Amino acid sequence: MNTTESFEIAVNGQQTFEFQASEASQLDMLAEQDGSFHILYKGKSWHAELEDADFAHRQLVFRIDGNKYTVHLADQYERLVRQLGLQIGGHQKQNTVKAPMPGLVLQILVEAGQTVQKGEPLLILEAMKMENVLKASGEGQVKSVNVQKGMAVDKGQLLLEMV
To answer: Which of the four CATH numbers 3.40.50.1360, 1.10.240.10, 3.40.50.300, 2.40.50.100 does domain 96-162 have?
Structure first.
């Protein structure tokens, strides 16, 4: 990872700040038994739970000390695309769903031929003792399911194909 790279972090669509990759060394996170995290950063402590993760859109939903935060991460390339106005009308349909991390398929919620809407749960993947619900990035039809319940998958492995 390039330690000089910066990320723009938008919280709840209101507050935006820049975070240098080199600042990550000041962040200390400890995973707890229940899937939540204890975070230490610059002498402050928080209790956090990851409620939802949309890796394709770089969006995470956390509950920190009882408050809900939707966080969007934008790297230098996403900011450049936005600055140039190229994201307008440039949305491409995503025809594959790949594992965002290594894990275990806990549950498959769709089957081939089924029509799904944007945001509809497709499958549940367990990773690092946490259940991650992978959702449809848009509406479409499931062409094929390439995994089975209980199957271990690698990061980037094809899980589903859409039409």
So the answer is: 2.40.50.100
Helix (H) or strand (E) holding 46: strand 44-54
Do the Cβ atoms of 94 and 162 come closer than 8 Å? Answer: yes
Euclidean distance between CA atoms 124 and 135, whole angstroms: 9
Burial zone of 101 (CB within 10 Å; 0-12 exposed, 13-18 middle, 19+ buried): middle
Could you report the per-residue pLDDT of 5-62, keeping only the tens digit for each? 778 888 888 888 887 877 777 788 888 877 788 888 888 898 888 888 887 788 888 8
